[in-house]
Amino acid sequence: MNSGMNKVQDVLENYKSAIYERDVEKFISSYSDDVHIYDSWGHWEWKGISLWKDNVVEWFNGLKEEGYLLKVEFTDVTIEENNDLAFVHCAVTFAGYTEQSGEKSRQMTNRFTFGLKKQNDSWLISHEHSSLPINMDTGKGMFDLR
Question: Which pTM does this prediction carry?
Fold first, then answer.
């Protein structure tokens, strides 16, 4: 399924559309089998595609149950690549829209870094790191800086 991601930008576009469509297989197709993820939500890390897929299934099912569609926007994107490795850092905004009304109900922006490798002429995410700045007074993540 990942054979169409010949450019790093294709991976970012697949990421966006798969989340909006809540399509687990499409989303997972952007990742290598040995992916290593540092996520901002509840776990220190995810190692391997099967554990990451379990998390994505839970995430997308939760969105469906709540009746939300997520629109993803990448800003401040920097892509550096050579023949087999690429590095991306950017801000990623997740905006939740109520499926029935189309009204935006929530939004947050994370900082993301992706490490990609080329396999069979297609780019795959092999490392992902999302983060938020922490308010030093409260110890809580700061979601509304952008």
Answer: 0.90
